[in-house]
User: Which sequence fits this backbone?
């Protein structure tokens, strides 16, 4: 009997986290660099408009933040490690802005999917606060519908040959 060339792998466990830390292009790119992150999708969440477009989020009062949905393997990277990456990649002390980007769509927010994530997010704020001179203004709020951004926003840096942006 001949052995199959196919290897059967145990399905890996995945969890999801949702973060907003300014322009989603750089946030997506930074999370993609982390070992254990399986996929990152740029999109919109936290607002009141169904199926929002980039134009609506930027120029209308949708209430949505530019955010990323991070699928990760918790046996490789923990939610707490993702929280540390989140706090190290942006300034969580600026209200509704990151660098030159101003508006509530650029707010710092953690959208939790479980009570365990909510508790970890609140603990991370307490742990990170001493590293900043100003108060952390990051929202910790229950996740609502996540709307993927238009395709041209996905992997934006890779598609456009950009290596980084104004995030810390």
Assistant:
């Amino acid at each position: 009997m001949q052995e199959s060339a196919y290897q059967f792998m145990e399905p890996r466990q995945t969890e999801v986290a949702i973060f907003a830390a300014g322009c989603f292009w750089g946030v997506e790119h930074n999370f993609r660099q982390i070992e254990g992150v399986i996929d990152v999708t740029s999109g919109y969440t936290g607002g009141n408009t169904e199926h929002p477009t980039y134009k609506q989020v930027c120029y209308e009062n949708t209430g949505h933040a530019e955010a990323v949905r991070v699928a990760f393997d918790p046996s490789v990277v923990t939610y707490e490690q993702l929280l540390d990456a989140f706090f190290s990649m942006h300034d969580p002390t600026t209200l509704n802005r990151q660098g030159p980007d101003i508006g509530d769509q650029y707010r710092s927010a953690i959208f939790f999917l479980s009570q365990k994530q909510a508790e970890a997010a609140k603990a991370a704020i307490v742990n990170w606060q001493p590293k900043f001179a100003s108060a952390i203004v990051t929202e910790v709020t229950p996740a609502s519908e996540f709307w993927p951004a238009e395709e041209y926003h996905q992997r934006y840096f890779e598609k456009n040959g950009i290596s980084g942006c104004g995030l810390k």
